[in-house]
Automatic annotation (TrEMBL):
Residues 185-284 form the DUF6596 domain. Gene3D superfamilies: 1.10.1740.10, Winged helix-like DNA-binding domain superfamily/Winged helix DNA-binding domain. Belongs to the sigma-70 factor family. ECF subfamily. Residues 19-79 form the RNA polymerase sigma-70 region domain. Pfam families: DUF6596, Sigma70_r2, Sigma70_r4_2. The lineage of its organism: Bacteria, Bacillati, Actinomycetota, Actinomycetes, Propionibacteriales. It comes from the Bacteria. GO terms for molecular function: DNA binding; sigma factor activity. Keywords: Sigma factor, Transcription, Transcription regulation. This is RNA polymerase sigma factor (Sigma-70 family). Residues 117-167 form the RNA polymerase sigma factor 70 region 4 type domain.
């Protein structure tokens, strides 16, 4: 087997089983940082060993066995400094467990769940949680994470290193939190996955409008989490991701330029993703206790998913859902989205009134979304000169080249009669 073939085989196994491997090693050693380090050492050894000896029959078990040996070596090196490590190293040596012990069928799910909760621990910064989750749970390399978030690889590596040190200093145990802590901690986990998915579905500061790989990784992890920790908001987030991802095939034209919601060919939407999203939303409702922020957003996404056209969308229901969302998770962005829905349901004049209330409060002053939405409503209300000024301001403030191009197209189109003056265009895709 060539070196490139061995690398492809290692990458395929790691992509599929990284969380289970690191989780099993973390359970075995009680140290997430050590587990991730020895797993990486096992990968490096596989690149050489598999190139000469071929892919083993049980590649997961091979990586686990090598990782275990490297962990024992690490404990022995520490033995002189800490008798606790020496005792653990002796226990590891004496037990000589096989792969079946490491991959305990009753512990695998708990291992992955504990790994997710540990990587997303609130003691870490938001950036550190994202980097560590994508590394130890998602199996992404530092280079892949850096490329996804448009930062340097050394920056990502530093975040991961600091995260491991912070967890160790805080004495964070590798374990699934007890029930009384889990509800509080699940919010941190869901928040990380949502941030990763949002960055993938509307990439900020990038020439590329959608990063399918990044959004897909968040969706994969959300599916795992929903299986391991069924909860109304876990299912709600999964439903939101599925229903949003369903529109991905229609969100770009042949040249890679964004296509707004009302202009999308809905025949290209992924019907399988829509069904999965609806099923997850139904599970969120069945779990009880009412829908939370993610479930409410998923309900809004479902309104779009089931409508054959923009005009047939149940905009009154969407307004109500945004009002409910504003009660449980108030934010200026929710208010802005509600204003757009009001304009779609009742016309641009009422929508403008809602937007101007946000302006008067001084919210979203640094976001291009506010002038962009206001410009759209002004244009549909026949106030072209004011709309032009708002579009120009929005384009200047917009960090995404792809999104800025859409705004510039709208600005150029102001000289032409609007095709549907009674309704504002949705400023989302």
């Amino acid at each position: 087997m060539s070196g490139s073939e061995a690398r492809s085989a290692v990458e395929a196994v790691w992509r599929k089983s990284s969380a289970r491997i690191v989780g099993a090693l973390a359970r075995y050693t009680g140290d997430v940082a050590l587990a991730e380090d020895v797993a990486q050492e096992a990968l490096a050894e596989a690149l050489v060993g598999w190139a000469t000896g071929g892919v083993p029959t049980n590649p997961d078990g091979w990586l686990l066995a090598v990782g275990r040996r490297r962990a024992i070596d690490a404990f022995r090196r520490r033995a002189g400094r800490d008798e606790r490590y020496a005792a653990l190293a002796r226990e590891l040596d004496e037990s000589e467990p096989g792969v079946d012990v490491l991959f305990d069928p009753d512990a695998i799910d708990d291992d992955v769940l504990a790994l997710i909760f540990t990587a997303c621990h609130p003691v870490l910064s938001k950036e550190a949680r994202i980097a560590l989750t994508l590394r130890v749970v998602g199996g992404l390399t530092s280079d892949e994470i850096a490329k996804a978030f448009l930062v340097g690889t050394p920056t990502v590596q530093a975040r991961i290193t600091r995260a491991k040190k912070t967890l160790a200093a805080a004495g964070v145990r590798f374990a699934v939190p007890p029930p009384e802590e889990r509800r509080e901690r699940i919010g941190s986990v869901l928040g990380v996955l949502y941030l990763v998915f949002t960055e993938g579905s509307s990439a900020s500061g990038s020439e590329t409008w959608i990063r399918n790989d990044l959004a897909g990784e968040a969706l994969r992890l959300a599916r795992i989490l929903a299986r391991l920790a069924p909860d109304n908001e876990t299912y709600g987030l999964l439903a939101l991701m599925e229903l949003t991802a369903a529109r991905f095939p229609a969100r770009l034209d042949r040249d890679g330029r964004p296509v707004l919601l009302e202009d999308q060919d809905r025949r290209r939407w992924d019907t399988g993703a829509i069904r999965r999203g609806q099923a997850a939303l139904a599970r969120a409702i069945d779990v009880g206790r009412g829908l939370g922020p993610y479930g409410l957003q998923a309900s809004i996404a479902q309104c779009h998913a089931v409508a054959r056209t923009v005009d047939e969308t149940d905009w009154d229901r969407i307004v109500s859902l945004y009002e409910a969302l504003g009660q449980v998770a108030p934010s200026p962005v929710v208010d802005l989205n509600r204003a757009v829905a009001v304009a779609m349901a009742s016309g641009p004049t009422l929508g403008l009134q809602a937007v101007d209330e946000i302006v008067e409060r001084g919210d979203l002053t640094s976001s291009h979304l506010l002038p962009a939405v206001r410009a759209e409503m002004l244009a549909r209300a026949g106030r072209a000169a004011e709309a032009r000024r708002e579009y120009e301001r929005a384009a200047e403030m917009c960090a995404s080249p792809a999104e800025r191009a859409v705004l510039e197209d709208k600005l150029a189109a102001l000289g032409r009669p609007p095709s549907a003056p009674s309704r504002p265009r949705r400023l989302e895709s």
